[in-house]
Amino acid sequence: MNAVASALIPIFGVIALGWAMRRSGLVRKELWLGVNRLSYQALLPSLLFSTISRADYAGLPAGSFLIAVTLGFVVMGALCLALKPLPVPGPAYTSLFQGGVRWNGFVLLALAGTAFGTEGNALAALVFAPTVPLINVMCVVVLTVWGTSDVKPDARRVGMRIVTNPLIIACLLGAACNALGLFQTGPVADTAALAGRAALPLILMAIGAGLDFSALKARPKLLMLSVSLKLIIAPLVFIVLGRLFGVEGVALALLAAIGSTPGAAAAYVLAAELGGDARLMAGHVTATTLLAFLAMPFWIWTTSFL
Amino acid sequence: MTQIILSAFLPVFLIIALGYGVRALGYIPREHWRGVNALNHRLLLPSFLFSLLAQAQFDGGQSLTLAGVSALGSFIMIALALVLGRMISPSGRITAPMIASAVMWNIVLSLALADRLLGDTIASAGAAVSATGVIIGAAAAVAGFALTSGRGLKAALAKTARDPVVLACVLGLLANLSGLGRISYLVAPIEMIGAGSMAVILLSMGAGLDFKALKGRLTVLLSAALLRTCVGPVVYLGLALAFGFSGDFAVLMAIAGAAPAAAFIYAVAADFDGEAGLTAGMITLTVLTSAITLPVAAAIALSL
Predict the structure, then answer these.
(1) Is B151 exposed, middle or buried (0-12, 13-18, 19+ CB in 10 A)?
(2) Is 0.85 exceeded by the ipTM?
């Protein structure tokens, strides 16, 4: 069994355990709010800071990789906009859009360390800084135009949400410390590493706890389209862009992985908040989480021929 | 040596302080920690202990002797807590948390410190000491609260047998003995959760610190803290030396002896309508005193 499949088994095992914990009532649905909050506010920022601040980027194609990743999300946004003429209600369309552009970076982070070594880990952590604000702005704009919520987002509030996003702050702080050679060892580095180790198991369990199989019945045709966008079109777009920018090897495999990660649970939260089709979004996240187990190794494998 | 101990211990205590800080500042409010605590007790801590025990490489006689020394330490701590509890108050409701805090040390904290100070070669010895400590400690803590709440031994036994932490220890040992623990695909997800659980448990330990619970009943609180974090290392290190253990093993036992009380005894106290406030105070004070006694105990054991 190859390294990617071997790395994915425990990842999906942990997701399944999270689902089982919620389904069995051992950790009830409402209690996961605290787990999510702890992961996003403290543990994931620690992991990103720890990884980026101590990574050795010398010799890594970080520049071309980041350009390809960022452009990949822009292209996916444009492709999703091109689907607007489809005869679907506005809220359902916003969920189709979010389904096409939102990705689950945490599955990638969990995979990168095991399957792609330190080089993959260092590159994967970098992706968050440019893509978190870009994707959030694209999704909020689309939801503002086609969502049904009376609550329209305040541009200043959206801006503040991005500027104060703990993941972005952690990435930028990590990059600054890396450049300045700060906190490479010592108590701060050790504390961040220790806290960061807990991030991925916890967030993977929270992903599992959020799976909603009943939502798979919502708008089956649209769901099929959004899943195809995420797991077939997106990986192709990222791989093609990677090749156009001369990305190869581990970095190209990472691009394929980014394209084929499942949808992110944050999409469901935003859809519920800003008048999107939250049920379709829940179905999309559930379906892509299950199918990514096949899609990710397949697309990563295809890059070995390029 | 001071430098080695500080660099090993400081990050662990900083994580605990971080947990307290994010809760106290309202960054992650108190009610959100309920989910984290539930996950800790029902999945993270059991996964940590299961993977530790399932993959431990027990080397026959030495592991058994270590487990025996750990068990003897637990029984001595129970006896001392009984005597001290009775001296302070005739009420069993005071003695129960005294026993629980004396016998049930914080396994995750002690193993995190041992790992940072001694490296992962101590993991199997840590597993032997911890499994015995958890099983005897949890049984004693539950029995103490159950008997003083009037629910009797049957309720205590039922609660102990269903406890996820105790079950994880028993299943981990069975997986180890049967060889199932070495089938990597079977234990990989549990191992992944277990590996990450340490920081979450330490963070929620910090978030659970309750300084208001330290007000009043100072004699009881100080006695419990003294017993757990000052007498504890003397008992465990003394036993280790008496049974011929030295070096890393002696340090491991000293750390187990000086570690603070386990946070989960608060949940047991609350479940049995025991003195939950007093128990919270004991946990909080032992965390504070252990910040001093743990490095001292480790330094003494290292210098022997």
Answers:
(1) middle
(2) no
